[in-house]
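Quarterly update from the structural biology core.
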Amino acid sequence: MTKYTINTKVLRTLREKKDLTQAKLSEELGVHREMISMIERGVRKPNIVLLKKISDYFKVPVSTFCKVDEEMKKLLELLNK
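Predicted structure, tokenized:
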């Protein structure tokens, strides 16, 4: 399993720039509001599928949120198929 660290401030900044509440973003992504809150506070990190959903939603590369190593690149390629 690939290990990665999330820059939690980026998610909050992007969400606030779009004037979204945690509840609205969670609804858009199909997750519980608590999940968005925990990600933003650094309590939990999203799995690779959710991380990809978040990056797609905000139209930014996954690397906006974390360093993408070779293993993660392969996983992201699989998700794009």
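The chain has a mean pLDDT of 88.
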